[in-house]
Every structure is written in structure tokens, then in C-alpha cells.
């Protein structure tokens, strides 16, 4: 911890980052590599004849994510402002390419773009890109954010377009996260409550329509309602996931000793929390939930202490992104919600998700830094043990009369403080 604090102690002309946030991100990265290996060793051996196939790839992604976190955390987040439109433009272009025929299919959805051996998931980048664009736009329009045509409509159109592209892939979970991010940032920015309630109702109606009138989604919903009847077909994966949590009991079977990796498909990706529950038990899941809760709390704290509204909006958005994805992933693995393709931040296997989470954490750590310029508390900190007391003394000294001044000077000062003739003392005040 001391070495980590020294490494993050200073950025260029700025203060230290939130060490707790940085330590938790690094811990999750390491824990994720271990759990991916534990959850994938059987599949890697059977399919690729290499028990460390997924371990090597996830380890490579984790090293890249670690470098990305530390690199971005040392860059002033305000330098992202001029890059806002290029970022959202690139993200939108990748989303369009993924649905017009250039997308690489996997699991029945064209969610990846193939660039040689690298597979990029545009919907993951869209989440962070939308946060940056909303933060930039809402800060620029903060005086008119309550206006529907300026404060609401442009943001709804942009996020709505990205959500439609997500649904075309199809990626219902990604579209839901984009809607929640938009709603949260508009609420934080001070949009009218009536408009937000209307947005919530409209989003709910659209979600019901998207589920009810899309055959495979409705079949999944019916199977989720009757898991015991569909445990051999559509509900096989969530049923096996629930079995994993039940097998773990209080403290789990032990790391690497889980048996559900033999039955749970793609256990190292979206359902890795089920393997954590089996091998580390209720205690392990409780600790994991606590870690995510602390990350969200420290992120909100960073937003409240941010130096400007732009940083505050970004920090709120990233905190919500981490919290919502972790919550939905765990809820799906426990069959509290129907199956959705959302990863567990920093832990699930996959380069796109891991690198986007790392970039988001790097930006959040950059926002947590404090600049010394213009901060009165920093200025007074060097003058005594109590900055507020020092500030009070300076304030009192500036208004107190100078008792050492010459009598003539004191007389002139008293005359300036006297009310003009014909005026009552109250009127002079």
C-alpha cells in the first residue's frame, strides 16, 4: 500500500489520487485473473488443448488495463474536452459498422468488430463515450438544462440513437445501461423532474415492447418465470448458475475446487460470479459486493469534491456505470433478473470490457486529484494548524480599525463612517 501511494502521490501540478479507489481497482484486476483461470481451465483444456489459454489472454489484458489506469490517471481529465466529439463520433461509427454487416457474430449477436486478431465490442466503448459527451454537453448547457428543447431533447436523441444500435446487435442489456446513464446524469444536472418521470415511463414502455414483441426475448422471459420446467433448454444456464451459488454455501468449496465449471456454459464470462459464489461462498460474494459498493461510494465522493461540473458529471456517470453493471450481473447470475449479456467489471473475461473499465477508472482517479491553485484551504494550510481559524483571523484583520495609525488618519476614517447629513443611521446602512 505504501509503494502504491508513492507511485500515485503526484500528478503533473496536481495532488494525489484516491488511493482507496486505485487499490480496489488493482485488487479486482488481480482477483479477476485468478477467477478467470479457475472458471476456464476445463474449457481451455478441452477446446484449445491448453489449460492456460484464457489465463494468458486475461493476464495480457490485465497488464494493459493496469498501465491504462496509471497512465490516464496522470492526465488532467479536462484535456478530454476537445476530444469529446471525436470520441462520440468514433464510438457511433463502430456501433453502426457492427450492425450493417461488419460485426463479428458470437452467441447469436454481432457485438464485435474484428481488427486482425483483436476483437472490439463497440457497445462497451459506447457507455464511456456517452458519459463523456453528456458531461461535456450538460456543463455547456447548465444554464438551460431545464429547457426541454436544449436540456433534454439533444441528449435523448443521442442516447436513443445509440440504444437503437445496441438493440440491433442485439444487446438489450447494453441499451438498458445507456438509458440508466442518461437518466442519472440528467437528474444530477438538474433537469425538470416531470421530464425525467416522462423519460422513465417512456423507457419502461419501450422495454416492455422490446421484450414482448421479440420472440427470443419473450421465450427467455417465459423460461425465467418457469425455470424448473425449462432447466434443460432455455433456462439451463441460469439454473446451473443458481446451483453454483447453492453449492458454495457459507464459505465455498475452495478456490479451484468448484464443479459447476463442468456444467455452466461460458462460466468465465458473464456468469463468473456464479463460480465465485461456489468456490468462495456467501462470504466471498459479500466481500465482492462490499468492494463494488465502496468503489461507487468513493466515486460519488469524488464527484461531490470535483473541481468543476464537468468532472462531477463524469465521476457520477462512471460510478453509476460500475454500480449498475455489477448489480445487474450479480442479479442475473442469481436469476433475480432474466439473462442479460453484461460483464462483471474488472473480473469477467474479455479485453473490451476490461480496457474500457480501466480507462473509466483512470479518468475517475484523475478527477480525484486536487489542484492547489485557487483553493483557499490549501493557501491557509501552511500558516497554522487550523486553516479555518487562520482564514477567520485574516478576515477580521481586514475589517478591524488600525489602532496604531496616526490620530489624523483615525479621524478621517471615523468621518468616512459617519452618515451624511440629513440621513438617519438606518438609511446610511
Please explain how this structure is put together.
This protein has 429 residues and is mainly alpha-helical. It has two domains: 2-368, no CATH class; 376-428, no CATH class. It is 66% helix and 3% strand. It has helices at 2-7, 19-48, 53-73, 84-99, 122-140, 148-168, 172-189, 193-212, 215-225, 236-248, 272-304, 309-333, 351-368, 376-381, 387-399, 407-417, 425-428, and strands at residues 103-106, 109-115, 118-120. A three-stranded antiparallel beta sheet has the order 1-2-3. A hairpin with a 2-residue loop joins strand 1 (103-106) and strand 2. The chain is globular. The relative contact order is 0.13.
Q: Topology, pairings included?
A:
Layout: H1 2-7, H2 19-48, H3 53-73, H4 84-99, E1 103-106, E2 109-115, E3 118-120, H5 122-140, H6 148-168, H7 172-189, H8 193-212, H9 215-225, H10 236-248, H11 272-304, H12 309-333, H13 351-368, H14 376-381, H15 387-399, H16 407-417, H17 425-428
Helix pairs in contact: 2-3, 2-11, 3-13, 4-5, 4-6, 5-6, 5-7, 5-12, 5-13, 6-7, 7-8, 7-12, 10-11, 11-12, 12-13
Give the terminus-to-terminus CA distance.
58 Å
Total number of domains: 2
* Residues in β-strands, percent: under 5%
The H-and-E topology, N to C, reads as HHHHEEEHHHHHHHHHHHHH
Radius of gyration: 27 Å
Largest sheet, strands/sense/barrel: 3 strands, antiparallel
Q: Mean pLDDT, as a whole number? A: 83
Largest sheet strand order? 1-2-3
Overall strand count: 3
Poorly predicted regions are 7-12, 372-414, 416-429
| Morphology | globular
> Which structural class matches the secondary elements?
mainly alpha
Number of helices: 17
Helical proportion? 55-70%
Amino acid at each position: 500500500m505504501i509503494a502504491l501511494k508513492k507511485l500515485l502521490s503526484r500528478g503533473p501540478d496536481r495532488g494525489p489520487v484516491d488511493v482507496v479507489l486505485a487499490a480496489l481497482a488493482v485488487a479486482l484486476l488481480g482477483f479477476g485473473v485468478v477467477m478467470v483461470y479457475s472458471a476456464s481451465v476445463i474449457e481451455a483444456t478441452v477446446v484449445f488443448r491448453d489449460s492456460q489459454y484464457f489465463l494468458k489472454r486475461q493476464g495480457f489484458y490485465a497488464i494493459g488495463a493496469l498501465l491504462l489506469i496509471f497512465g490516464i490517471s496522470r492526465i488532467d481529465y479536462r484535456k478530454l474536452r476537445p476530444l469529446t466529439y471525436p470520441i462520440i463520433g468514433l464510438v457511433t461509427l463502430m456501433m453502426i459498422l457492427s450492425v450493417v454487416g461488419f460485426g463479428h457474430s458470437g452467441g447469436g449477436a454481432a457485438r464485435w468488430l474484428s481488427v486482425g486478431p483483436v476483437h472490439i465490442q463497440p457497445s462497451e466503448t459506447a457507455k464511456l463515450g456517452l458519459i463523456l459527451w453528456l458531461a461535456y454537453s450538460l456543463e455547456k448547457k447548465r444554464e438551460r438544462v431545464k429547457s426541454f428543447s436544449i436540456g433534454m431533447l439533444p441528449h435523448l436523441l443521442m442516447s436513443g440513437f445509440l440504444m437503437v444500435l445496441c438493440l440491433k446487435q442485439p444487446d438489450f442489456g447494453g441499451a438498458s445501461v445507456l438509458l440508466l446513464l442518461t437518466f442519472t446524469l440528467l437528474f444530477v444536472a438538474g433537469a425538470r423532474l416531470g421530464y425525467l418521470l416522462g423519460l422513465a415511463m417512456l423507457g419502461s414502455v419501450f422495454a416492455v415492447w422490446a421484450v414482448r414483441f421479440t420472440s427470443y426475448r419473450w421465450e427467455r422471459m417465459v423460461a425465467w418465470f418457469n425455470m424448473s420446467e425449462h432447466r434443460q433448454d432455455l433456462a439451463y444456464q441460469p439454473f446451473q448458475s443458481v446451483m453454483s451459488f447453492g453449492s458454495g454455501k457459507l464459505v465455498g468449496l475452495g478456490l479451484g475446487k468448484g464443479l459447476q465449471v463442468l456444467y455452466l456454459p461460458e462460466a468465465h464470462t458473464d456468469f463468473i460470479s456464479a463460480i465465485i459464489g461456489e468456490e468462495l461462498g456467501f462470504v466471498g460474494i459479500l466481500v465482492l459486493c462490499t468492494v463494488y459498493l465502496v468503489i461507487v461510494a468513493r466515486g460519488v465522493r469524488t464527484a461531490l469534491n470535483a473541481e468543476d461540473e464537468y468532472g462531477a458529471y463524469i465521476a457520477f456517470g462512471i460510478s453509476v456505470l460500475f454500480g449498475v453493471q455489477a448489480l445487474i450481473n450479480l442479479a442475473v447470475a442469481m436469476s433475480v433478473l432474466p439473462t442479460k449479456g453484461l460483464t462483471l467489471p474488472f473480473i469477467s473475461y474479455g479485453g473490451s470490457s476490461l480496457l474500457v473499465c480501466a480507462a473509466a477508472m483512470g479518468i475517475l482517479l484523475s478527477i480525484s486529484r486536487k489542484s492547489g491553485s485557487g483553493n483557499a484551504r490549501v493557501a491557509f494550510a501552511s500558516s497554522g494548524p487550523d486553516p479555518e481559524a487562520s482564514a477567520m483571523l485574516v478576515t477580521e484583520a481586514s475589517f478591524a480599525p488600525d489602532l496604531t495609525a496616526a490620530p489624523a488618519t483615525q479621524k478621517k476614517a471615523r468621518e468616512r463612517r459617519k452618515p451624511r447629513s440629513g440621513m438617519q443611521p438606518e438609511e446610511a446602512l
